[in-house]
Write a structure and sequence with these properties.
It contains 14 helices and no strands. It is an all-alpha fold. The termini are far apart.
């Protein structure tokens, strides 16, 4: 069983410990069920979006301070739904690798799944603050009236939007990119999903609007996603261009270079894992259960951003050093 689960990993290098002992084994069982039912991985991804999005409704009403035992119950249901969504998010990739049903749409949907979850969850936490802000006002000695409530909620909304789009989205996008880069040198082009904006723009330009409206929208979003990744990694882009010019493809890159890159990149994989789901979800569950939502966003903006810049700086230095040695 363990070997079968390992077969569905992207690679042992890029798997987080908690995923190995918890998420992947459970995701594998779901993947086996979906395989028997002949359900496509993309359908599983959409189901994960629905489950994760549904958790937002329960997070919104999870304040035990004002709703008592019902608030605690809503929090537990929200945690269950988001965990379930994460199992499906694992199962879709495992199913795709088991059956060979890998598609470009699947890649785009998989990347968008957690974005859908957290956008709605973050907005639900703004609503929760609006409804249940009494303790925060009391601690800050703010009179609890309608005008102050709206002002505080708008400030809270601004903080949440910055945490979501300015921090969370960039962190996850770059972490995913670094894992795909690692897989690119570890397994080659076929073993990674290292896409570039030029390639995606070409697909977009060659795809007619007629009969492909939604697909064109997905592609346009994905082009912007890959451009953001490339803008953040100038030294890697230089290294990649030099390698492609010198060797053509990863199959011709010397194994010694690929091993050297893996040696330098491997220690950063733990940081890419911290910046994706598990750490963020555990903190979200804890702060919601204790009704300390502000603590989650402080951690998101301060600690996770610090890790993001640390990871980015070190990866860029690795690429710069290897570029100069070529």
């Amino acid at each position: 069983m363990n070997e079968n689960v390992k077969f569905t990993y992207k690679s042992n290098d890029t798997e987080e410990w908690l995923d190995k002992v918890w998420t992947r084994p459970i995701g594998y069982q779901w993947a086996l069920l979906f395989k028997r039912l002949n359900i496509h991985p993309n359908t599983v991804t959409i189901l994960s979006m629905i489950l994760g999005a549904s958790s937002a409704l329960f997070f919104a009403h999870g304040s035990w301070r004002t709703e008592g035992i019902n608030g605690l119950l809503y929090n537990l249901i929200a945690i269950l739904l988001l965990s379930w969504a994460n199992f499906y998010d694992s199962a879709d990739g495992q199913l795709a690798r088991m059956t060979g049903q890998k598609t470009q749409l699947g890649r785009i949907l998989d990347g968008a799944a957690s974005e859908v979850w957290f956008i709605l969850i973050y907005l639900s936490l703004v609503y929760r603050f609006y409804q249940h802000h009494t303790l925060e006002f009391w601690l800050l000695h703010i009179p609890d009236n309608e005008q102050n409530t709206w002002i505080a909620t708008l400030i809270y909304l601004g903080i949440v939007l910055y945490a979501g789009f300015g921090c969370h989205s960039r962190q996850c996008g770059l972490a995913d990119y670094y894992r795909q880069i690692h897989l690119y040198f570890l397994k080659g082009e076929t073993g990674s999903e290292l896409d570039n904006s030029t390639q995606q723009q070409k697909i977009y330009n060659e795809t007619p609007w007629k009969g492909n409206f939604l697909w064109k929208i997905f592609l346009k979003t994905y082009i912007n996603y890959t451009k953001t990744q490339e803008i953040q990694t100038p030294h890697f882009q230089q290294l990649l261009k030099k390698l492609q010019k010198k060797y053509g493809s990863t199959t011709h890159i010397p194994q010694t270079f690929r091993d050297n890159f893996r040696t330098h990149s491997l220690p950063l994989m733990k940081w890419t894992n911290i910046l994706t789901f598990n750490t963020r979800a555990i903190l979200l569950y804890t702060t919601c259960l204790f009704d300390l939502l502000w603590l989650y966003f402080v951690f998101e903006i301060a600690m996770m951003t610090t890790i993001y810049y640390y990871m980015r700086h070190h990866h860029e230095q690795i690429c710069k050093k290897l570029f100069n040695k070529l």
